[in-house]
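Why run this: before we spend reagent on co-expression, it is cheaper to look at a predicted model of the complex and decide which construct boundaries make sense. The entries below are exactly what would go into the expression plan.
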Amino acid sequence: MPSMEIADLQRSKVARWTAIMAGLVLALFVTIVVCLSVGVMGIPFDQVIAILLGGGTKTQSYVIMNVRLPRVILAAMVGASLSIAGATMQGLFRNPMASPSVLGISSGAAFGAALAIVLGVSWTNGPFAIPAMAFVFSFITLFLVYTVSRNRSGYVPVETLLLAGIAVGSLFSALVSAMEYFAGEQLSGVVFWMMGGLDEASWEQVAISIVPLIVGCSVIMVLARDLNAMMVGEEQAGNLGINVNRTRLILLVAASLVTAVAVSVSGVIGFVGLIIPHVVRILVGPDHRILLPASVVSGAIFMILTDTLARTVIAPAELPVGIITSLLGAPFFIYLLMSRKKSMGW
Amino acid sequence: MKLSVNGVCFRYGNQDVLAGINLEAREGEIIGILGPNGSGKTTLLKCLNRSLSPREGTVLIDDRDCREMTRREIATHMGVVPQSANVNFPFTALDIVLMGRTPELKRFESESKRDLEIVQEAMELTNTEHLANRPMDQLSGGERQRVIIARALAQKPKILLLDEPTLHLDVNHQLDILDLITGLAKTERLIVVFVTHDLALAARYCDKLILMQKGQVVAAGEVMTALTPANLRRVFGIEASVYFDERIGAHSVAIIRSFRENRER
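The model came back. Tokens follow.
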């Protein structure tokens, strides 16, 4: 009966989405347990689970609860924020190459951090000095890019926005390089921060990041339907009653907030926001109502795995995780550029 | 349902694009907007659904001023079919048509049974049901355009605005689309306003025509009233004649020659 067909299609879509999310969440838990057990001190899976449930020996329990767990959770949060920021920007700019770094937001945040490290400039003291500055500058960068690319009638053409992002990003990169040059003995701090890493993970960092992350992700996911319509065409989205300029601005602010969360605690970790949404889109389709949550969980899994690799591959020493993501991401980016010639668009 | 446009003016920068446009349309009517490039046709269409805000004048939907309505509210009255709908992403046709329900849905609401029925109906009317699960980027131009029309119909509009809906289509698809639209105007009692460059299609399918030049209405009315030889010469610089063709049961246009030949050299 033909009148059933559309309802059936819709039902099977919802079932598929539920299965995808259930599968990903399960995979996330498995990843967490596996990665908690790996390290200089090997701890068997059953022990890990026992410790998580409140048992285990004192030493093992300390390693899991105070060293590895905050780090794994922070990695998950960083991966989730970069992925949802990337997915949002790719949808907003209708361009799979868009990501926080393309718009110069990461560079802006890096400059803020460098200011705090080298000159000790910040609007707050203590452990939050560096993240706070990264945070402020990612917003400044965003608004600079947005204002530069906005034309008189209030419309923001994508091309101009991306070019403005490149220009502003280059400016901040140059400023960071200048700071590095003059940094002297603090140089290693700046360099490590620019490469990105999670070795200073603590419950404190988890605590300061969790609220902005949840706020940012919620705002973006609430606008998922509008983002779908805007990806098909901004004017058409307007014809469907969507306030395009306002929605775009809200999404940009939310995306830069979650980017700032990630950059603040882990430095510049490139390509996660590019790879994850792209791969997830191939697997689940372009609808942001599934793409965004699936990207969040996949990004978390990806980041936990790469960070575990970073802390074990040359143990007891550590590799900055940003190096690993770039080693994986740059070839992927090149592959994207090449395959784009064949398949139009995505 | 009635659509009336009273003295609408619009300018880009300090250049007048529309100067005092008047227009009246009733349900079931198909209004064609004709004019050379840059005559303000598309701008007028955009003023109708407040994609652009006129500097002066009003657009009234059933005697309600558009300026007092939100874009969302307007979207429940008006569906828009753009020139070309290149969707480069693998959204399925069903996904696209479902987007037509956006204006009616609250923020956290998902599509109800009623919404799905409306979508089903829109897809039946446009003969796109069998495409429901196909990705848009794999459809032909004509199929895509029908899906976009289905999306506009899923808005349950009283007014349908179309901007050169047949521009990129071959002749068979052009006829399909226009037969579909004119049929809908009559059966669903829609007001259809469509912009076109094709004199013959406009003469054939429209109840009323509006002839525009440099942001002004040169002539308006039924086909024979609007498309007089003098008007066609003035607006398009052509010698043409409009006649009733019994084979199609409608008006047709024979373009004889252009008066602009010398100027092109």
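Chain B touches chain A at residues 49, 51, 70-76, 78-80, 82, 85, 87-91, 94-96, 99-100, 102-103, 105, 107-108, 111, 113, 116-117, 119-120, 123-124, 129, 132-133, 137, 155 (CB under 8 Å). Residues 2-264 of chain B form a domain with the Rossmann fold fold (CATH 3.40.50.300). Bring this page to Monday's planning discussion.
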